[in-house]
Amino acid sequence: MLPPVEQAVLDNNPDFAILYSKLTTSILNSDGSTKTDPAAKERRLVSELLRSLEAKHGPIARSLEFRATEASLTAQRQEAEAETALWLARRDTYTPEAARALANYASHLRDAKARLNEAIHTLKGELEAYGVDPDQGATGEGAQGGKEKVMREMARVYRDMNRQLEEVKGDLDRLKRA
To answer: Mind listing the UniProt keywords for this protein, alphabetically (predicted)?
Structure first.
């Protein structure tokens, strides 16, 4: 069975994703054997021939059995070489430095997520202090919905006043320079 690869690894390295996709869909079966095993057809034909000849010729049939075993071992060796090539490609794709960098980045993302969750928690607390249920959102009923509408309107007016104030400051600065 092929070892699983995390989706994040495939997303972060598109070249490896293409290689892995090609290996898993075109070259290898799910059990790790090659799909285009050149010895598979030969192995099947030799097995059929071996059975028919064993009935007629004992010692000669054993020789064919040895050849079939040799073909089978060749196929197994090719399968192992393909698996080795896959592991080498994975190793070359992610050097130890790259793996450490990815681990550090993943840690940074976890920390950032924790900080964002804490900020959301704090902001929800502030909304609740103003009487707005953050989990209910704009679908509030009765007094709750009215209070939220007033708060939203106050925020809109505040933003508009700040924008106008910045425009006036800009005009004053231009007049001072002129």
So the answer is: Coiled coil
What are φ and ψ of residue 34, in 5° steps?
-80, 145
The DSSP secondary-structure symbol of 134 reads T
User: Which residue stretches of the chain have pLDDT < 50?
Assistant: none
Closest CA to 83 of 38, 16, 7, 23: 23
In this structure, the number of other CB atoms found within 10 A of the CB of residue 68 comes to: 20
**From CA 1, how far away is CA 72, in angstroms rounded?**
19
Residue whose entry in the numeric block shows the structure tokens 């690869």: 5
Q: Chain-centre distance of CA 146, in angstroms?
A: 44
Look up the pTM and report it: 0.33
Number of helices followed by number of strands (H, E) in the chain: 6, 0
